[in-house]
Q: What sequence folds into this?
């Protein structure tokens, strides 16, 4: 019983490792499925969701909360999928979505820059210089994206339980190492993890329902009690309370909805 | 037959891991010895040298070509030790000196800030606030030092084969994990890697000799 997220440097063979590891552990392996699910659930084209999770935000995004909205949709789809347990997610943002969750094994796979350049040259049929430029651009976008949304670089070691570098270690070594690592007691899903995950999913679902109108709202859940806090005029507190209660009470697992308005004037 | 370098965040229990690992593998565990040799060659007291490593580098300002010569001596002392094989080295810049030598297991051990704060509070009997400030200062100084001397940021994960978070594993878990990792064929010393260490050592010796004569 476990959940693993694998963040991978582009062209670092992380996908191959995730797939082989899931086969060995008998876990489900997901990646693009999350975007497809979010696209279907919220009726947003996949390409827009991909842009939101992949590219550094533009000034327009910052003003219009566009990325925030799409990421809320992706996060909800992600949390719903990993609830099934025995799952490996490889791809973007998994380490951020599970940051507060204990007992989840967070992995990062990196590779030597010269190795990555070779892969890009072969795959894209480009010169060494061009390959280097492509990789630099991708890496820069990833850093900007995570700095803007989470205030920390996606490469920061403190985000992960283990970082493995493909150089001396090969793909099969890495799969075997992670297989043994994942079986340690500290990475087994506990009742506490499941409870926390359930609350996170409730909060993410609630936020996805109000993000269009209230992108700045902060939604939390504890034991099924949802708390929506946002800045607004005190005059509308009662109405907002009623609207949120009506909208969110039918989410699976919700026991109560509380609204906390922080007055504009303070 | 193998060589392991362990770089460690301060107060992340990395020394404990290195010592226990060396014992389990039956390897020699070194760190301070390298410094001692360098300090002898460099005619700087060891206390001063350790102090320089803790603080931002200024010790070499008064010595002609100090930085370059210091790195050369440390490199030489380091390579001299590891060529004996079956070594666990913990401490500064091991991963930097072994960058292009294959089959050397390069590990970094880190811990969450809260974990480090607790370790420091217990060890020094100080408040949380003071511990946090002290750790921040140490991190900044270390970063300055490694950037100044070696042109690297020790937080760059690509320098290591594995970066390990100690929080969940704890010391014994980390020892056990690295022990198994070190037994893998890709981290066994080969004639090729030995030859490379030998070549590098000769180059380092020649360089140090040259550096001495110039001054």
A:
């Amino acid at each position: 019983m476990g959940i693993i997220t694998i963040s991978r440097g582009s062209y670092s063979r992380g996908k191959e490792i995730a797939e082989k590891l899931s086969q060995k552990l008998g876990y489900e392996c997901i990646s693009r499925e999350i975007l497809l699910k979010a696209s279907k659930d919220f009726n947003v084209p996949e390409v827009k969701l991909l842009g939101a999770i992949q590219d550094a935000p533009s000034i327009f995004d910052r003003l219009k909360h566009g990325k925030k909205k799409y990421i809320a949709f992706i996060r909800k789809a992600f949390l719903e999928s990993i609830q099934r347990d025995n799952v490996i997610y490889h791809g973007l943002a998994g380490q951020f979505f599970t940051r507060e969750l204990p007992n989840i094994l967070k992995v990062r796979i990196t590779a030597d820059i010269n190795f990555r350049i070779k892969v890009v040259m072969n795959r894209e049929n480009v010169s060494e210089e061009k390959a280097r430029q492509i990789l630099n651009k991708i890496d820069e976008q990833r850093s900007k994206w995570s700095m803007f949304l989470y205030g920390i670089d996606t490469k920061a070691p403190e985000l992960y339980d283990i970082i493995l570098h493909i150089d001396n270690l090969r793909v099969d070594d890495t799969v075997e190492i992670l297989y043994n690592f994942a079986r340690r007691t500290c990475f087994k899903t506990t009742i506490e993890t499941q409870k926390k995950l359930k609350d996170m999913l409730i909060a993410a679902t609630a936020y996805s329902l109000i993000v269009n109108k209230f992108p700045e709202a902060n939604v939390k859940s504890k034991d099924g009690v949802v708390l929506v806090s946002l800045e607004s005029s005190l005059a509308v507190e009662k109405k907002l309370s009623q609207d949120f209660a009506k909208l969110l009470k039918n989410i699976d697992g919700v026991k109560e909805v509380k609204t906390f308005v922080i007055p504009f004037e303070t | 037959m193998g060589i392991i370098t362990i770089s460690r965040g301060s107060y992340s229990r990395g020394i404990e891991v290195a010592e226990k690992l060396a014992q389990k593998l039956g390897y020699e565990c070194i760190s301070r010895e390298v410094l001692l040799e360098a300090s002898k060659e460099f005619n700087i007291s060891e206390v001063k040298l350790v102090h320089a490593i803790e603080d931002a580098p200024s010790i070499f300002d008064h010595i002609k070509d100090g930085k370059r010569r210091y790195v050369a001596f440390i490199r030489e002392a380091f390579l001299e030790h590891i060529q004996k094989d079956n070594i666990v080295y913990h401490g500064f810049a091991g991963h930097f000196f072994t960058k292009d030598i294959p089959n050397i297991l390069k590990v970094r051990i880190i811990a969450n800030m809260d974990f480090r704060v607790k370790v420091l509070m217990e060890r020094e009997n100080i408040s949380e606030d003071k511990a946090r400030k002290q750790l921040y200062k140490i991190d900044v100084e270390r970063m300055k030092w490694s950037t100044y001397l070696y042109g690297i940021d020790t937080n760059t994960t690509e320098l290591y084969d594995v970066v390990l978070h100690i929080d969940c594993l704890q010391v014994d878990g980390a020892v056990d994990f690295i022990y198994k990792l070190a037994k893998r064929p890709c981290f066994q010393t080969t004639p090729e890697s030995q030859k490379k260490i030998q070549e590098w050592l000769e180059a380092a010796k020649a360089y140090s000799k040259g550096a001495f004569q110039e001054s």
